[in-house]
Design goal:
cytoplasm, mainly beta, 2 helices, Barwin-like endoglucanases, Aspartate 1-decarboxylase, single chain
Length: 120
């Protein structure tokens, strides 16, 4: 049996911009992606803390240390700059390895700079 587990989480990021005319996805600062092991084009779920909704999309790698969190395409209608979000990537793990699994979770400040790795 495989279990779908939280692999990576960026907690409390702030949407910096939206781009309705872009062809889909969420652009995320490369330094944040590296910190939680999320790859370019990886599927993520984005939870909007301000309005309680969720959207799924894929990641586009943004400029390192830029602080960018940009909702693109249709997702641009789902959030506004200044909204706080949680970004989660999942993975499939066999049942044996799922026991004791530890995801990579980070907390960021209002400018999307890493504050700390959260214990799991």
């Amino acid at each position: 049996m495989l279990r779908e587990m939280c692999k990576s989480k960026i907690h409390g990021a702030t949407v910096t911009e939206t781009n309705l005319e872009y062809n889909g996805s969420i652009t995320i600062d490369k330094s944040l992606l590296t910190a939680v092991d999320i790859l370019h084009y990886e599927r993520v779920q984005v939870l909007n803390i301000n309005n309680g909704t969720r959207v799924e999309t894929y990641v586009i790698e943004g400029e390192q240390d830029s602080g960018i969190i940009c909702l693109n395409g249709a997702a641009a209608r789902w959030a506004q700059p200044g909204d706080r979000v949680i970004i989660i990537a999942y993975c499939l793990i066999n049942n044996k390895d799922a026991i004791g699994w530890k995801p990579k979770i980070i907390l960021v400040d209002a400018k999307n700079k890493l504050i700390k790795n959260l214990p799991t």
